[in-house]
């Protein structure tokens, strides 16, 4: 019989530099709570999760920019943030690839969830759309995340 664990696994302390970005991460956390507790009256079923996707995207982009663009945080802190799910590691992995620099969420490139086994409408460059045609993604509310725009 396996031994019974009596202590809760303690979380490792954050690396050096976390104190500098902690206020911004707390702001994102508070925005997320507000979005989760917001009223859903008058919204369509698929529109209810849009603010959550947008805040998650903003938080991931903030951490991505700190590490890759500004080089303001260490690799150790970046790895710790990804491990503790402060950012979406799969989305950041896509941002590093050519053509996915402006990707809004991973659901927009998953072909399994669409009717015609294609990517989302927000991935179509605006130059290929009709003039004055407004598009909006059903899964996240994005109005266009194609890198060719």
TrEMBL record:
Coiled coil: none
GO cellular component: spliceosomal complex
Subcellular location: Nucleus
Domain of life: Eukaryota
Statement: the UniProt record of this protein carries the keyword Hydrolase: no
Signal peptide residues on this chain, from the entry's feature table: none
Record carries keyword Endoplasmic reticulum: no
Any one GO biological process: mRNA splicing, via spliceosome
Key words, A-Z: Nucleus
Family from the record: Belongs to the BUD31 (G10) family.
Protein name: Cell cycle control protein cwf14
Organism of derivation: Amniculicola lignicola CBS 123094
């Amino acid at each position: 019989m396996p031994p019974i664990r009596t202590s809760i696994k303690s979380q490792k302390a954050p690396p050096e530099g976390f104190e500098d970005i902690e206020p911004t991460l707390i702001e994102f956390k508070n925005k997320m709570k507000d979005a989760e507790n917001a009223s859903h009256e008058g919204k369509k079923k698929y529109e209810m999760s849009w603010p959550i996707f947008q805040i998650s995207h903003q938080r991931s982009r903030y951490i991505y920019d700190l590490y890759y663009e500004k080089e303001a945080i260490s690799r150790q802190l970046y790895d710790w943030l990804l491990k503790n799910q402060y950012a979406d590691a799969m989305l950041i992995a896509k941002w590093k690839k050519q053509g996915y620099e402006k990707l809004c969420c991973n659901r927009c490139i998953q072909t399994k969830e669409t009717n015609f086994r294609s990517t989302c409408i927000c991935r179509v460059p605006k130059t290929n759309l009709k003039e004055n045609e407004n598009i909006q993604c059903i899964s996240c509310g994005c109005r266009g995340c194609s890198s060719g725009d």
